[in-house]
Amino acid sequence: MMIYLISVILASIFIIPFAIKTLSPYLWLDILYLKDLLRILVTFVSRRRRRPFFFVLDRFLEQTAAHPDKSFIVFENEHFSYTYTDRRSNQTANALLAQPGYKAGDTVALFMGNEPAFMFTWLALAKLGSPVALLNHNIRTKSLLHCFNCCKATVLIAASELKAAVEDVLPTLTEQGVTVLLMTKHCDSPGIESFSDKVDEASDSPLPRSLRSHITFKSPAVYIYTSGTTGLPKAAVVNQNRLLTALAVLASNGVTSSDVIYLNLPLYHTAGFIIGFIGSIETGSTIILKRKFSASQFWDDCRKHSVTVVQYIGEVMRYLCSKPKRENDKDHKVKLAIGNGIRAEVWKEFLNRFGNIEVREFYASTEGNVGFVNYVGKIGAIGRVNFFHQKLFPFTLIKYDTERDEPIRDDNGLCVEAPKGETGLLVSKITDIAPFVGYAQNEEQTERKKLRNVLKKGDLYFNSGDLMRIDNDNFIYFQDRVGDTFRWKGENVATNEVSDILTISDGLKEANVYGVQVPGHEGRIGMAAVTMKEGAQFDGSRIFNHVVSYLPSYARPRFIRIQNAVEVTGTFKQMKVKLVEESFDPGCIQDPLYILDNEEKSYIPLTAQVYSSIISGNIKL
Ligand SMILES: *[C@@H]1O[C@H](CO)[C@@H](O)[C@H](O)[C@H]1NC(C)=O
């Protein structure tokens, strides 16, 4: 298999001179990119052949041996060296082994914000051969239980500040026999055990390899949650093989051990965990870890720690650019920004303001089998079609009917490729080297992401759910998302999940949830068109309380539109398209409109004045 791969690569390299005409003027950069890909592949293949098996943990141990005293993590002015990290994770692992209700290999759920203990605990669990479910620390109650249960975890390790959230679901956890450990030195609550004190006391002696001898490349390593098109979040299975490939993400973008990485994205998401954390293990860099993103601390942090690489999502870049200009804007050592979702106009402004920083915009999803990186710095693009890349990972854009929300098919029932310059749905062939592992305990959702009979009868593709466009120079541009999710503040929001929550509140009969665009903001903000139950009155503060107790802040509908009845004309989908178009302008919409007001703790009427302040940017959402 791998031999075949290498021959494909070599063959492609010899073909390149003949393709000069089509590849120029980016030929040189394309070749450099191929060279990097080739190097990554060779490293990967040789690691896959090592016995005993070589996993991400082994790379961490190599780095610890190579520079034991180097800082691995810097957090709130404390430095943790590679050796300290290794010892602390051994202590965590030994403490866990002594814990009744846990045995090596059991799946553990980690419910914790960004802090060093997150990384120590993950490494500890890797040493014990345990898969780890990375729970989003913003979720509560029903969602929390759902996420916990869908990966069959038997132990929950939670940060001390999340105690109340754990207590909310404790009766159910206790009933299921789950061991609940809290990162605190002392805990009185029955059913919750303190864990930090046990870690402090535990030995840092090595964990025998035999504890993880059952692990293969197919074993789940982490579960990362993604919002689905329907219902509650799904746990994407990231297996050991995929994690091993993921080691390359920073290294392939020129990051080395002398780099200092600024990690301010949540560790429960792919960007923070895989790119920031796992990526730094490969390069042996130092991570400046932040609890969360702060636009006002960003550049001061970068100066203080001589940061050279920053991670971003679109919102991060926009917030940085919207801060008032400062004289020292260009005074820093950042040379590379790597991330996803930066808009062309923000990109230009960013370079203008903060100087010559290389922006590496990429496209990838947690569970998907295709990814791109814009390695030539073309503003606005997420990547580039490359002959070799397409041979290895066959992908294409197909025509898509956004009204009916399905791919367009021809008379033979096959999909139709979108010509250059036209928007189409990105689909990528599922193969041995581009597998789609799917979601834990969710065959139905896994099946939904597969598309059959795309270009030939019987073929099988992964449906990315993303609409893209390829221009004449082969650059790929992200256009939009299809279906029932939208992004707000860097998080995916599943519209059906939000409507489910709304309709279990008193008074509301139906709820149709969608995202609307607001000038000056990335993504879409949540809005719900609802109907009331017979005789019920809209009670803003009641709905507010309901929404706040069930949904994380980014998923709460900011606007509510009250309708007399759900419109019957057209399909449900068409209706949504119309609602999205009408947006939230009280000047155009006759129905009563409300806006969520955090100060008033209620939904209050949306006036024309508030509307114009939002549009002019005086009110930030
Ligand atoms: C911690 O455990 C790892 C193996 O799991 C081992 O290689 C390392 O030497 C241990 N560290 C210490 C300080 O004993």
UniProtKB/TrEMBL annotation:
Catalysed reaction, written as an equation: a long-chain fatty acid + ATP + CoA = a long-chain fatty acyl-CoA + AMP + diphosphate; a very long-chain fatty acid + ATP + CoA = a very long-chain fatty acyl-CoA + AMP + diphosphate; tetracosanoate + ATP + CoA = tetracosanoyl-CoA + AMP + diphosphate
Broad EC category: ligase
Location within or outside the cell: Cell membrane
Cross-referenced InterPro entries: AMP-bd_C, AMP-bd_C_sf, AMP-binding_CS, AMP-dep_synth/lig_dom, ANL_N_sf
Domain of life: Eukaryota
Xref: Gene3D superfamilies: 3.30.300.30, N-terminal domain of ligase-like (3.40.50.12780)
Pfam families reported for this sequence: AMP-binding, AMP-binding_C
Transmembrane segments: 6-29
Single GO BP term: long-chain fatty acid import into cell
Entry GO terms, CC: endoplasmic reticulum membrane; plasma membrane
Domain (AMP-dependent synthetase/ligase): residue spans on this chain: 62-383
Membrane as UniProt keyword: yes
Keywords from the named record: Cell membrane, Fatty acid metabolism, Ligase, Lipid metabolism, Lipid transport, Membrane, Nucleotide-binding, Transmembrane, Transmembrane helix, Transport
PANTHER family (UniProt xref): LONG-CHAIN FATTY ACID TRANSPORT PROTEIN, VERY LONG-CHAIN ACYL-COA SYNTHETASE
Family according to the record: Belongs to the ATP-dependent AMP-binding enzyme family.
Protein name: long-chain-fatty-acid--CoA ligase
Gene field: LOC104953026
